[in-house]
């Protein structure tokens, strides 16, 4: 259950960062990182289980860390993590954390 809203961003992202490996994976897939960042920012948590999406919804209310995961066409995945203090949002490969 995604909580995507059309009313704008659901939380501040802080400083956006992308790891070199995630940048290369997105470029190879032809997906702009800003597109996935926008989905994350609007509460579209991507390819997470229903339980993990609900956990993100709770984390959003409680000011905890947020995690999204997006599948790539080649079978890979890209994750986005916003820290609890909302100071940094990082786009990375799942094995990068």
Report on the architecture of this protein.
The protein is an alpha+beta fold. The chain has helices at residues 20-29, 33-41, 50-62, and strands at 15-18, 66-71, 77-82, 88-92. The longest helix has 13 residues, at 50-62. The chain starts with 14 loop residues before the first strand and ends in a 5-residue tail after the last strand. The model is unreliable at 1-5 (pLDDT under 50).
Q: Outline of this structure?
A:
With 97 residues, this protein is α+β, with helices and mostly antiparallel strands.
Keywords:
97 residues, alpha+beta, four-stranded mixed sheet, globular
Strand percentage, roughly? 15-25%
What topology, given as strand order, has the largest sheet? 1-4-3-2
Arithmetic mean of pLDDT: 91
Terminal CA distance reads 25 Å
Count of DSSP helices?
Answer: 3
What's the overall geometry? globular
What is the element string, with H for helices and E for strands? EHHHEEE
Unreliable runs, pLDDT <50, ≥5 residues?
1-5
Count of folded domains: 1
Number of strands: 4
Question: What is the share of helical residues?
Answer: 25-40%
Instruction: Give the biggest sheet.
Output: 4 strands, mixed
Radius of gyration, taken over Cα atoms and rounded to an integer in Å: 12 Å
- The class by helix and strand makeup works out as alpha+beta
